[in-house]
Predict the 3D structure of the following.
Amino acid sequence: MFETHVDTLYLWIGLGTVSVAVLGVAIGLPTTAPPDATAAAATIDEVTTSPPGSVAHRRLVAEEWAFDGREIRLRNGGGTAAARLIRTAVPARTDRLQTVVDGERPKAVYESPGAFRLDTRQARTANDRWRPAPDRMTVRHVAWGGTDVTIVG
């Protein structure tokens, strides 16, 4: 009744092997969810299709982001996500554009509407490399001197 069976050793070896395999899978799983690029793109699209003066904020759960005006890409420990926009927007690549996104009127930041137009055009053509992501993305629809753009920063 209290005999040790030969099968018991194999059972324990098998159980140990399975336990180690399950532990390996659990450790290899990402600890965070992938970022939600679709929600960020929807926020940008909402402001782009709204009248000038519209503004929106969205929290980004990402370590890095890349934005070229047509597509937003977010990356964190859980993976990478990308989403395309309905209409183009302007990335706030310069300090002056970031100041406008933060709420300052373009008239107070730029010497002329032409300088504002030039800065937005150059921002659209700049390199869209990965950059550290802000905790909160701000999107602002601005119209001044014949330039009607949505700026994202």
User: Anything to note?
Assistant: The mean pLDDT is 89. DSSP finds five helices and eight strands in the chain.
